[in-house]
Amino acid sequence: MSDLIESKLVSKYFLILSLINTIAAICFTLPILVPTSGLPLIIGAFPGTWLIVGYFVFLIVGIMGMLGWSVVYSSLYSMFDKNQTSKRLAIIQIVFIELSIYGVATTISFIGWQGGQALRQGLSIASVGFLIEPFVLPTGVFVALVLLGQLVGVMNIFSTIRKK
Q1: What range does the domain containing 45 cover?
Q2: Which parts of the chain are beta strand (E)?
Q3: Which of 23, 28, 118, 120 has the smallest set of CB atoms within 10 Å of its CB?
Q4: Hey, how many other C-beta atoms are within 10 angstroms of the C-beta on 68?
Q5: How far does Cα 32 stand from its chain's mean position?
Q6: Strand (E) positions, 12-142?
Q7: In this predicted model, which residue has the larger pLDDT, 32 or 22?
Q8: Partners of residue 4 on adjacent β-strands
Q9: Distance CA 89, CA 101 (A)
Q10: Is 54 exposed, middle or buried (0-12, 13-18, 19+ CB in 10 A)?
């Protein structure tokens, strides 16, 4: 089995994931449009703002970031005359970024939802902080994995460019 893959194919995978993430973002947006869901009230105050932070992180990394990687891999041939890249690094990059961005968005949004609901029910800020504390470490782990996936992608691009 070859350790190389066509860079256009990797580009295609990133584009497909960007489109899938766009559909997911649309589904995440729909509950906000329902006035009886209480989401607009939760979003209006800390920690409910974390719902918005999670959503924007998903939009930036999950959609725009994947689209950006698609363009980078697609441009390898036209800019550097390289049409193959490391399959292993590309798979690691895709898996780390895709799974981790869903993890980041989910944990951050859950923190916002739980904290916002707790504040609406009259809990103090200190109590809310204690309530959401167990989810801070998993969020940090997911963020680290997203960054690691990005770093693997950068290493893959540089190693592809340097190949003779």
Answers
A1: 4-162
A2: 4-6, 84-86
A3: 23
A4: 15
A5: 20
A6: 84-86
A7: 22
A8: 86
A9: 18
A10: buried
Strand-pairing partners, residue 6, are: 84
- b/e 108-136 (16+ beta carbons within 10 angstroms → b): bbbbbbbbbbbbeeeeeeeebeebbeebe
Strand boundaries in 89-134, DSSP class E: none
pLDDT band at 129 (very low <50, low <70, confident <90, very high): confident
Angstrom CA distances, 12 to 31, 55, 112, 117, 126, stand at: 31, 24, 34, 40, 47
Place of tokens 């970024």: 97
Lowest mean pLDDT among 3-12, 19-28, 51-60, 95-104: 51-60
Q: What is the domain count for the chain?
A: 1
Of 108, 88, 104, 93, nearest to 153 (Cα)? 93
Q: Give residue 144's Cα distance to chain centre.
A: 11
